[in-house]
């Protein structure tokens, strides 16, 4: 069944260009010119992924992303004419899954779309069969069937990226994973020293896992190398 993609941009030529390339790959396209119109389209259609411009009238892309993340986990790729890291950091912090700076090669956007759909939908299908027993470390239980976390019995929902990060770390307590290993295994792309992406996602994950994110018990930073998950004997020390 073909995936449906929502394109949100106030420039008709951007929508037309992306629609041309995506429809060639058999994707169904739904378009909106601003955030308010996009929210209406989300009520009318089952959307699998959204491509959202940041700079738009009435409701911009960051406002739309904030509203979207209140109820929906669908992957979101942000577009922006700005090249500053601040846009990328803010967008990822609000729950975006990827970021493409304008002007862009539409083939790059197509590749990012395919990667996000593969991670979000194909990955989850592959993980469901065969069923895996939950991974337990300390007061945390990672459920692989629902891709969710139980912390002292409280259910915590995870995005696809957060689940994959936590799965990697919890599966090998004490092992140090380099930033390159994390990026290439979780994002499935060649590592290009994209430290901001990893840092923002780790910060979001700590907010969910840790009682005190600034003094983490579970997810440890190994300066100059990467990250590791606390060993079981550390948690009972």
TrEMBL record:
Residues 4-117 form the Response regulatory domain. One of its GO terms (cellular component) is cytosol. Keywords: DNA-binding, Phosphoprotein, Transcription, Transcription regulation, Two-component regulatory system. One of its GO terms (biological process) is regulation of DNA-templated transcription. The modification 4-aspartylphosphate is found at residue 53. CDD domains: REC_OmpR, trans_reg_C. It is found in: Cytoplasm. One of its GO terms (molecular function) is transcription cis-regulatory region binding. Residues 132-231 form the OmpR/PhoB-type domain. InterPro entries: CheY-like_superfamily, OmpR/PhoB-type_DNA-bd, Sig_transdc_resp-reg_receiver, WalR-like, WH-like_DNA-bd_sf. Residues 132-231 bind DNA. Pfam families: Response_reg (PF00072), Trans_reg_C (PF00486). This is Response regulator transcription factor. It comes from Paenibacillus agilis.
């Amino acid at each position: 069944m073909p995936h449906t993609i929502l394109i949100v941009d106030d420039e008709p030529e951007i929508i037309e260009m992306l629609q041309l390339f995506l429809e060639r790959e058999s994707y169904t396209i739904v378009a909106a010119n601003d955030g308010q119109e996009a929210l209406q389209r989300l009520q009318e259609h089952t959307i699998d992924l959204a491509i959202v411009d940041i700079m738009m009238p009435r409701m911009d892309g960051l406002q739309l992303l904030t509203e979207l993340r209140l109820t929906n986990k669908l992957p979101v790729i942000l577009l922006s004419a700005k090249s500053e890291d601040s846009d990328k950091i803010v967008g990822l912090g609000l729950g975006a899954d990827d970021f493409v700076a304008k002007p862009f090669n539409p083939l790059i956007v197509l590749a990012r779309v395919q990667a996000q759909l593969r991670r979000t939908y194909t990955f989850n299908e592959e993980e469901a069969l065969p069923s895996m027993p939950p991974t337990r470390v300390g007061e945390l239980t990672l459920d692989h069937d629902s891709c969710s976390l139980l912390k002292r019995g409280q259910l915590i929902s995870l995005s696809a990226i957060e689940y994959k990060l936590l799965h990697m770390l919890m599966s090998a307590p004490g092992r140090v994973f380099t930033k390159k290993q994390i990026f290439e295994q979780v994002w499935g792309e060649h590592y290009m020293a994209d430290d901001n992406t990893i840092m923002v996602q780790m910060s979001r994950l700590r907010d969910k896992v840790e009682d005190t994110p600034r003094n983490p018990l579970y997810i440890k930073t190994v300066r100059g190398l990467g990250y590791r998950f606390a060993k079981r004997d550390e948690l009972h020390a």
